[in-house]
């Protein structure tokens, strides 16, 4: 029977398991981190380091976390951990948005309409508080399960007393400096939720609407038309301006028709009527209306044309309200893209309409629609109907009146409420606003965007800049119960607003002691300074404002409520980074900017980074109705959190990112490759200690090549982390592991397994593998936090002898200090590695030839092969600089010869000789008579083992 040499080999030994069993083992590690107080230990380690503060944007506490939450929080964890590795002091305070309509809506849904109507405001607020508290707990556990480190026991919650005082502090500053005012103007209004909405609370979806063309008949023929009409014998003909609208329900609120001041208008003669419209759109109107051979009024020198300003001041009979008239005005908002060039103008139902009417002296605004989106009693023929119900009756009325020119149903993008997802309306109501221009806030904010903040990616600067430049005044009042009240008072006698520095300070003190619930329970006289009275009439009976603050205001002041109010915890203002979804350019990024610039004159952040949305594998938005959502809890239960974290690192987070079960399986395959690499490294270093590391001169050519590659990996990973290119970290590690697994670790196995345990040749390989392990475990730590820490625990005893922190996150980031002494890679080493890279290219050709030879049954294994490499003279000359044994090891073959030829090629044949039963290489056997059946190398090893 042939002798077995297995016990004489240096086979890998490690208890690090091949299978991670992440769903079962990760919770145990989380518990371990909690017991070790890892978050606090990292802060303690970096206590003297430069602070780096990522300020957490608060998600709504109204349900379990979804995959978008997980994506965002994991990204933040990458940022915090890679900074902590580099020695920064990184306090991370997670937060939740606990007020507002989303939570109130869920409580309403749970109670039902009947029970909701019987619930008092204080009772409702308590129910909302309890709902938010419940889901803070649910989401906190979800985020912790992702491996996200932070101060989870002391988060910031927007219903905390100290946070609510920040709402009032910034309101006070901006009210007293003139930025906040009360006014009546059109805003987005949700008739279903009965509240005003800010632009950030609007989502857009397709709707089908009836677009109509309507004749508005002049009271008297305008002068610009009269002369030509008389000359044509049409001096007594009815004359009208043709308008176009997609909202027939707004016609009862019509007060004017807007024309483009510098556009040319013409008069079409249709069925005895003179109809005014823009010249550029007359053909399109005629086509829609079905007018054939349309004729136009002439002025003797051709078609009559006049500018929009020529009709300004002319009046017309209101199309649907008896006894009322409207007036022609001009405005630069009128375009000639579509319609008629004549815009039905209802200042109560549109921002542009409101602005142009205000500019033209039309100050009194008609508003026939109530809070429920229905026409008030006595305002028009359609009283009691909702705006949507009124469309068809209004159109029919116009048809019967003979003023309807045409109707065309269109599909177009229309604003919807972000919570109930129903269409909203523009409706003029009295609200509280932040003025964008009264104190120069708009320009200050734009200047801050351009000059004071780093935007990642850079192009996002233009996105938020355009939004701020074009946005209307910010409506910050809401007609709901659950939130922080607008901290002003109204005189019960005359209705004057009462808001002074003293009243604000009294409210701040009240909220600090009792929270905002006290506003709805206590009377103002209980907490306002004695003698507080109305500045207009001297009245002392004051009523607290009923409206609450917009939730975007609340989250927007978190820079003060957290960074300033909790500065003693190592936080600082402004924050170093905000990181949220791309939709926050019109949400949290913007509300934070406006409150900070408005109150303090500076942005609340130094840098802003956004991430895209999570979509399915087809690029479609995830939704319950489509059934294409991904539950992070299910992903973790199947694959483990580290696989989800690895997926986050693999994508370009600035774009929308795809995720599906199939994609996660691919990522899981990559994870297994990384884990197996770690297992090989740990097993190969079982008997290695730092004192065994060899100097550079002892390394063989491929060892030196891999050391240079390892340093290049370290540099690539470091720069990628510094630039927030986490997919660059993933790609660098993935490519490196593929190379090391497929080449170096395969090549090195012969020395690792077959050489004497302490031979310089084997220690050289181990020295390289040690350096690879030290770099890789740290490089992966921010991403594969669970697995990297597991690897850290399984480090060989000899590599722990100098002392090692209990967790990888305390071990510092990958750097040259982790490389073994004497192996600092310089220019000479890099030149040597570059030269050897030419031999690696030869290996690619040889490997392909070996695969072909195996396929053709010429050889069974590469160790049986004799290789003849044909190569150009310069390649042959370069190969002669190396010992032939280098290529036997590099190609894992029996023999290698180089011959000159025009092109690089390899010829494979069966090598002559016998296979060594110990190392399986074909070498000369019997050189040592005492071990005649093995090769000379193996005989020496056996002799050294006393065999």
List the defining traits of the structure above.
947 residues; 29 helices; alpha/beta
Question: Could you please describe the fold and organization of this structure?
Answer:
By secondary structure, the chain is of the alpha/beta class. 40% of the residues lie in helices and 16% in strands. The strands form 10 sheets. Strands 6, 7, 9, 10, 11, 12 and 16 form a 7-stranded mixed beta sheet that branches. It has a 4-stranded parallel beta sheet with strand order 1-25-26-18, covered by helices on one side. Helix 21 (661-684) packs parallel to helix 23. The longest helix is centred in the last third of the chain and has 29 residues, at 726-754.
List low-pLDDT spans: none
Morphology: elongated
Instruction: Provide mean pLDDT, rounded.
Output: 92
Could you tell me the number of beta strands? Answer: 33
Distance between the termini: 18 Å
The total count of helices amounts to 29
What is the CA-based Rg, rounded?
A: 38 Å
Tell me what portion of residues adopts beta-strand conformation. Answer: 15-25%
What is the helix fraction of residues, given as a range?
Answer: 40-55%
Taking the sheet with the most strands, its summary is: 7 strands, mixed
**Class by SSE composition:** alpha/beta
What is this structure, in a nutshell?
The protein has 947 residues and is an alpha/beta fold. Helix content is 40%, strand content 16%.
Which secondary structure elements does this structure contain, and how are they paired or packed?
Layout: H1 22-36, H2 38-45, E1 54-55, H3 67-85, E2 95-96, H4 101-111, H5 113-117, H6 121-145, E3 156-157, H7 161-176, E4 180-190, E5 195-197, E6 202-217, H8 223-231, E7 239-245, E8 256-259, E9 264-270, E10 273-278, H9 282-289, E11 295-296, E12 306-307, E13 315-317, E14 325-330, E15 342-345, H10 351-359, H11 387-401, E16 404-417, E17 425-434, H12 441-451, E18 454-456, H13 460-470, E19 474-475, E20 477-478, E21 489-491, E22 497-498, H14 501-514, H15 524-527, E23 542-544, E24 548-549, H16 551-556, H17 558-564, E25 577-581, H18 588-600, E26 607-611, E27 614-615, H19 632-638, H20 641-650, E28 657-658, H21 661-684, H22 701-722, H23 726-754, H24 760-780, H25 785-793, H26 827-855, E29 865-871, H27 873-879, H28 884-891, E30 895-900, E31 905-910, E32 914-915, E33 922-923, H29 936-944
Parallel strand pairs: 1-25, 2-3, 7-10, 8-14, 18-26, 25-26, 27-28, 29-30
Antiparallel strand pairs: 4-5, 4-17, 6-7, 6-16, 8-15, 9-10, 9-11, 9-12, 13-14, 17-19, 20-24, 21-22, 21-23, 29-31, 32-33
């Amino acid at each position: 029977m042939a002798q077995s040499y297995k016990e004489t080999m240096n086979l890998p030994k490690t208890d690090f398991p091949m299978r991670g069993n992440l769903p079962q083992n990760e919770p145990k590690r989380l518990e371990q981190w909690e017991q070790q107080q890892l978050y606090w230990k990292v802060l303690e380690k970096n206590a003297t380091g430069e602070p780096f503060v990522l300020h957490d944007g608060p998600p709504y506490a109204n349900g379990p976390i979804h995959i978008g939450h997980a994506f965002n929080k994991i990204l933040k964890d990458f940022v915090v951990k890679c900074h902590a590795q580099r020695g920064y002091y990184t306090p991370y305070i997670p937060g939740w948005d606990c007020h507002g309509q989303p939570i109130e809506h869920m409580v309403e849904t749970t109670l039902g309409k009947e029970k909701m109507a019987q619930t008092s405001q204080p009772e409702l607020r308590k129910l909302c508080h309890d709902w938010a508290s419940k889901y803070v707990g649910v989401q906190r556990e979800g985020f912790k399960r992702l491996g996200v480190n932070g101060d989870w026991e002391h988060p910031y919650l927007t219903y905390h007393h100290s946070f609510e005082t920040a709402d009032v502090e910034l309101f006070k500053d901006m009210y007293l400096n003139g930025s906040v005012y009360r006014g009546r103007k059109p805003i987005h209004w949700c008739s279903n939720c009965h509240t005003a909405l800010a632009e950030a609370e609007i989502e857009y979806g397709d709707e089908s609407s009836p677009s109509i063309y309507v004749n508005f008949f002049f009271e008297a023929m305008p002068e610009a038309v009269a002369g030509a009409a008389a000359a044509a014998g049409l001096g007594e003909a009815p004359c009208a301006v043709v308008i176009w609208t997609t909202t027939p329900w707004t016609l009862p609120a019509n007060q004017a028709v807007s024309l483009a001041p510098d556009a040319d208008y013409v008069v079409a003669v249709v069925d005895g009527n003179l109809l005014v419209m823009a010249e550029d759109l007359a053909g399109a109107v005629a086509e829609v209306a079905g007018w054939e051979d349309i004729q136009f009024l002439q002025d003797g020198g051709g078609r009559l044309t006049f500018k929009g300003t020529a009709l300004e001041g002319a009046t017309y009979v209101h199309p649907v309200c008896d006894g009322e008239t409207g007036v022609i005005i001009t405005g630069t908002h009128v375009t000639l893209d579509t319609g008629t060039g004549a815009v039905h103008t209802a200042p109560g139902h549109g921002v542009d309409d409101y602005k142009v009417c205000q500019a033209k002296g039309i100050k009194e605004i008609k508003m026939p629609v109530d809070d429920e989106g229905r026409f008030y009693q006595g305002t028009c023929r359609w009283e009691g109907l909702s705006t949507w119900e009124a469309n068809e009756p209004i159109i029919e009325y116009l048809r019967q009146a003979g003023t309807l020119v045409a109707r065309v149903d269109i599909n177009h993008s229309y604003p919807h409420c972000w919570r109930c997802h129903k269409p909203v309306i523009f409706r003029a109501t009295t609200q509280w606003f932040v003025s964008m221009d009264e104190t120069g806030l708009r320009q200050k904010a734009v200047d801050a965007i351009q000059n004071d903040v780093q935007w990642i990616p850079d192009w996002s600067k233009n996105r938020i800049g355009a939004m701020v430049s074009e946005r209307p005044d910010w409506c910050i009042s809401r007609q709901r119960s659950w939130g922080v009240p607008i901290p002003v008072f109204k005189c019960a006698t005359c209705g004057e607003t009462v808001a002074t520095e003293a009243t604000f300070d009294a409210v701040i003190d009240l909220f600090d002691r009792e929270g905002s619930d006290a506003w709805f329970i206590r009377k103002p006289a209980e907490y306002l300074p004695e003698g507080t009275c109305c500045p207009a009439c001297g009245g002392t009976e004051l009523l607290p404002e009923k409206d609450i603050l917009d939730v975007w205001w609340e989250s927007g002041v978190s820079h003060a409520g957290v960074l300033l109010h909790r500065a003693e915890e190592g936080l600082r203002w402004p924050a170093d980074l905000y990181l949220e979804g791309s939709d926050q350019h019109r949400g949290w990024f913007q509300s934070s900017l406006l409150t900070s610039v408005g109150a303090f004159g500076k942005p609340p952040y130094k840098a802003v980074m956004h991430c895209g949305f999570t979509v399915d594998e087809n690029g479609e938005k995830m939704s319950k109705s489509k059934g294409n959502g991904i539950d992070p809890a299910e992903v973790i239960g199947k694959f483990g959190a580290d696989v989800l974290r690895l997926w986050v690192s693999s994508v370009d987070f600035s774009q929308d990112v795809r995720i599906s079960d199939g994609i996660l399986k691919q990522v899981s395959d990559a994870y297994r490759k990384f884990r197996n690499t770690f297992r090989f490294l740990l097993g190969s270093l079982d008997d290695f200690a730092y004192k065994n590391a060899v100097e550079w001169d002892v390394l063989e050519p491929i060892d030196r090549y891999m050391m240079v590659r390892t340093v290049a990996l370290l540099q690539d990973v470091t720069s990628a982390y510094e630039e927030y290119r986490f997919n660059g970290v993933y790609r660098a590690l993935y490519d490196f592991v593929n190379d090391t697994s497929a080449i170096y670790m395969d090549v090195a196995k012969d020395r690792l397994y077959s050489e004497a345990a302490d031979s310089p040749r084997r220690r050289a390989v181990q020295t390289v593998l040690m350096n690879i392990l030290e770099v890789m475990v740290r490089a992966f730590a921010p991403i594969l936090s669970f697995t990297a820490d597991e690897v850290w625990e399984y480090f060989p005893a000899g590599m722990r002898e100098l002392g090692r922190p209990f967790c990888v996150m305390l071990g510092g980031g990958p750097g040259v200090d982790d490389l073994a002494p004497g192996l600092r890679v310089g220019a000479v080493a890099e030149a040597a590695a570059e030269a050897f890279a030419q031999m690696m290219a030869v290996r690619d050709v040889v490997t392909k030839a070996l695969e072909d030879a195996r396929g053709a049954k010429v050889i069974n294994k590469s160790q049986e092969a004799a290789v003849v490499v044909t190569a150009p003279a310069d390649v042959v000359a370069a190969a002669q600089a190396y010992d032939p044994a280098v290529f036997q090891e590099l190609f894992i073959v029996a023999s290698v010869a180089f011959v000159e030829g025009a092109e690089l090629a390899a010829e494979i044949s069966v090598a002559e000789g016998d296979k060594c039963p110990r190392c399986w290489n074909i070498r000369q056997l019997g050189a040592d008579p005492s071990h005649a059946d093995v090769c000379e190398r193996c005989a020496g090893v056996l002799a050294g083992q006393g065999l």
